[in-house]
Amino acid sequence: MQAPLTMIPLIAGIFILGASGQPATKREAILMLLVAGTIVLAAACWGAVEEWIDYTRGRKWPTVSAVVDVVSVTMVESKGISSTANHSWPYYRATLTYSYRNPEAQTGEYKRNFANEDDAKAWANSYKGETLKVHVDPRDPTRSLLREKDL
User: Fold this and answer.
1) Are residues 107 and 80 in the same domain?
2) Does 4 or 138 have the greater pLDDT score?
3) Which run of H or of E encompasses 132?
4) Which of 28, 71, 126, 130 could form a disulfide with 24 if both were Cys (CB 3.0 to 4.6 A apart)?
5) pLDDT at 17
6) CA 44: distance to chain centroid?
7) How close are the terminal C-alpha atoms of the chain, in Å?
8) DSSP letter assigned to residue 150
């Protein structure tokens, strides 16, 4: 969704005027740009940060055997915004649902996105019924993590 043209002067005014309502000083302008840049960078890198958190969180957890019981593929609508037009394109999320015992029966999921539905189905179906190693949180056996390198 594009910002209405009437919003552009308001946004520009916020960046041009300093805290006192007077034109922003060089220091205030640099500070505002640094804050805005940090926010944009954090948003752009969020996926990588989540992967890193999962990687470091589960790497020392003990492993148990799990069986992939259910595989599924769903279409997800993704909306992007460009300066010239709004675009909408689907991608396909393959989900592996696995079960394990530690000591009671538990389940978990692993998801991967694909651009092509046939590729997603082929990948998911290749794991149906397979036994894999999953990492289980020693403090909470209901939490598990199937890492990509363990596939």
Assistant:
1) yes
2) 138
3) strand 131-136
4) 28
5) 61
6) 11
7) 38
8) G
